[in-house]
Amino acid sequence: MKKPARSNAPRIAVAILAAGKGTRLKSRHPKVLHEAGSLPLLQHAINAARQLVPAADIFAIVGYEAERVQQAVAASGIGFVLQREQRGTGHALMVARAALAAYDHVLVLSGDAPLIRPETLARLRDQHLEKRAAMTLLSAVPEDPTGYGRVLRRKKGARVTDEVVAIVEEKSLTPAQRKANLREINAGFYAFAVKPLFAHIDRLTTDNPHHELYLTDVAALLGKARERVIVLATEDATEVLGINTRAELARLDARLRDRACAALMAAGVTIFRPETCVIDAGVTVAADTVIEPFVQLLGTTQIGADCRIRSYSVVRNCEIGDGVTLLPGCVMTDSRIANGAILGPYCHLRQGSDIGEGARIGNFVETKKTRVGKGSKANHLTYLGDAEIGERVNVGAGTITCNYNGVGKYRTVIEDGAFIGSNAALVAPVRIGRGAYVAAASCITEDVPADALALGRARQTIKEGWAKAKREAAGKKDH
User: Fold this and answer.
1) 328 preceded by cis ω (within 30°)?
2) In Å, what is the CA distance from 230 to each residue of 131, 210, 351?
3) Which backbone phi and psi does 37 adopt, to 5 degrees?
4) How far are the Cα atoms of 161, 397, 420, 445 from residue 423, in angstroms, in the given order?
5) 59 with 26: CB under 8 angstroms?
6) What is the DSSP letter of 404?
């Protein structure tokens, strides 16, 4: 039997530096688990890397609170390398040697830079492979390079090449280099050929103020060994920004939100005052939907076409059909809304709510694990929990399904065409038959047959003059 041809494509891994504590954040939590754009910082790096290589070829190098970090992103399917002592970025690659030895090349990403785009990483990879470099570093030219190491490129005559002479920390710049106003910085993203990397990485020293092993120093080691070290500049300097302070975290979160809004508007969604909206990267919205100011669309929410999402609505992990209207102040989680439904203002859909086509859920109505059928209405001040409500049902104001008896939860079923009067209490388990009526203020504890009328309230009694006599007995005068 003929053996399949062996692929000549190089094996590429991604290593994500995620071991740091993040002292300047003044937090007891791992730095890479702080969130921007609703995701942990590390998850953004993983998502970008997965556009280039399978999850099995991605390794997060973890250290501080390693178990928590692994648990937070375990669903991504990536591998992990433990850096027990955090002795610098160079040391991080040293401890990953065994995991990376089987690969030809490795891309090294910063776990706290959530704006990095897959397109930029692909350019870094392609430039590295095309130029057959031992090391390719990503650079940026920010408006203010203060605090960053500068990249010195080799010149050939008047031409500046992509070859790196050195990476110089700001405090080590010579007077001539300062006068030259060097602004190209090392961005902290790299591509390495694995063999030359590990052939020289053990020569790193801790001869620096922090006594750490720096990955940037590998450039000089490779240069001395006449290996090729090149640089690729980013098209957008902001995408390599990392996070060291809470203020920087807030700014990067805002940039991620801006990206999400811009992508939706480019796809045909109208967003009024996008700077006031919070829209997660995992949200999808179809064309011609209108999103008003101060809306939050979170998680994996999906919204259809021609909807209107009015101000102050907060929607998380919901599926919304076409032509749906959310009036102001709707709060919805893990729910489904069919085409043409109208909700709010100020309704609350809890997990497991399923609102049918053309249904109406009005002000101060709360639902939980409840299906509301096509064309049914619950317009005011109602709680519907653990309920199955058929089509064309009218639920009067103040109605509640009493689904919890202190021990267990029970279901209420209201069949098609039933009419539930105001302030009714339906004590589960109970079934209201098709076309039946429940009188206002009734407490229903037994099933109601189809087309029947159920009354469950005390007969009204009037005692003339009772209130006046009570006041006189207490010595109070009528007003």
Assistant:
1) no
2) 8, 26, 52
3) 60, 30
4) 79, 6, 9, 14
5) no
6) B
DSSP string covering 127-179: HHHHTT-SEEEEEE--S--TTSPEEEEEEETTEEEEEEEEEE-GGG--HHHHH
Eight-state DSSP code of residue 445 = -
The interaxial angle of helices 118-130 and 41-49, nearest 10 deg, is 50
Q: What is the token pair recorded at 307? A: 């909807």
- Kindly name the residue from 29, 210, 380, 479 that is annotated as catalytic: 380
Q: How far is CA 143 from its chain centroid?
A: 29
Annotation says 380 is catalytic: yes
The CA distance from 334 to 327, in Å, is: 18
Q: Check if the beta carbon of residue 220 is closer than 8 Å to that of residue 201.
A: no
Per-residue pLDDT averaged across 48-68, rounded?
A: 95
List Cβ neighbours of 362 (8 Å cut-off, separation of 6 or more): 343, 344, 347, 377, 378, 379, 380
The residue with tokens 């939907």 is 289
- Report the alpha-carbon distance of residue 392 to residue 394 in Å, rounded: 7
pLDDT in tens, 171-227: 878 888 888 888 899 999 999 999 999 999 999 888 877 788 889 899 989 989 999
Per-residue model confidence as pLDDT tens digits over 29-40: 999 999 999 899
> In sequence order, what are the residues at sequence separation of 6 or more whose Cβ sits closer than 8 angstroms to the Cβ of residue 269?
285, 286, 287, 288, 289, 290, 291
Taking the C-alpha atoms of residue 122 and residue 113, their distance in angstroms, rounded to an integer, is: 16
Which pLDDT score is estimated for 460?
A: 85
Structure tokens belonging to residue 470 = 């009570």
| Res 2: pLDDT | 47
169, 186 contact by CB (below 8 A)? no
Q: Is the pLDDT of residue 361 over 70?
A: yes
First to last CA, the chain: 108
Does the pTM of the predicted model rise above 0.85? no
**Rounded to an integer, what distance in angstroms lies between the CA atom of residue 396 and that of residue 412?**
15
Q: Is the pLDDT score of 383 beyond 90? A: yes
Q: Is the peptide bond before 429 cis (omega within 30 degrees of 0)?
A: yes
Residue 6 has pLDDT above 60, yes or no: no
Dig out the tokens for 228 from the structure. 């090729």
Q: Which two tokens stand for residue 309?
A: 């999402």
Per-residue confidence band for 86, with pLDDT thresholds at 50, 70 and 90: confident
Pairwise CA distance, residues 112 & 187, whole Å: 12
Amino acid letter, residue 122: A
